[in-house]
């Protein structure tokens, strides 16, 4: 990890640590470093730091390293860590907060495909009131520049009725749009 001045980082980033605690509702300073979360994490093999290490780095104020880590984007929110934590810390929720903070700070490079998928998914829900799988796939492939990704599954899925060629629009689309607008307003506060 290289040389790192802990007391300086703590001093400089105390407000960030407090913010993560407030936004996630989880007191990460209660972590015992037992590593049970890391031991059960199905994504740990692909992470640069296991979840217990992220918790420690966070408590020590290592803001940039945490927000620039691959870990927060590899985390799939499965909650295994949360159910295993002996200190009842909702680690999955902390990961969620860290992803939001990484986007705000502009540290999105390692989360590019996750963000593209998220935008494509929510885009179809916003437009039609529910998920439109074919639209999601096309939008995701276009935004990641991987036009033919999974294209071989499209026709068999259509023929077997597992995917529809056109979106099904629900009746309450205006209500769904209001939820999106309200969420946007809350983000601005
Ligand atoms: S929620 Fe994320 S960090 Fe926790 S066990 Fe699942 S993948 Fe790992
Ligand atoms: S399981 Fe909980 S207490 Fe143990 S290292 Fe992970 S976050 Fe810390």
Please compute the radius of gyration using only Cα atoms: 19 Å
Q: Tell me, what is the CATH class of the largest domain? A: Mainly Alpha
Unreliable stretches covering 5 or more consecutive residues: none
How many domains, in number, for the residues? 2
Reported for the largest beta sheet, the result is: none
Number of helices: 11
- Provide the CATH superfamily of the largest domain: Alpha-helical ferredoxin
| Overall 3D shape | elongated
Task: Explain what you see.
The protein is mostly helical and 189 residues long. The chain folds into two domains: 6-107, Alpha-helical ferredoxin (Fumarate Reductase Iron-sulfur Protein, Chain B, domain 2, Orthogonal Bundle), CATH 1.10.1060; 111-188, no CATH class. Helices cover 61% and strands 0% of the residues. It contains eleven helices and no strands. Helix 8 crosses helix 11 (173-188). Bound molecules: iron/sulfur cluster (2 copies). Residues 31-37, 52, 55, 84-87, 89, 91 line the site of one iron/sulfur cluster (SF4).
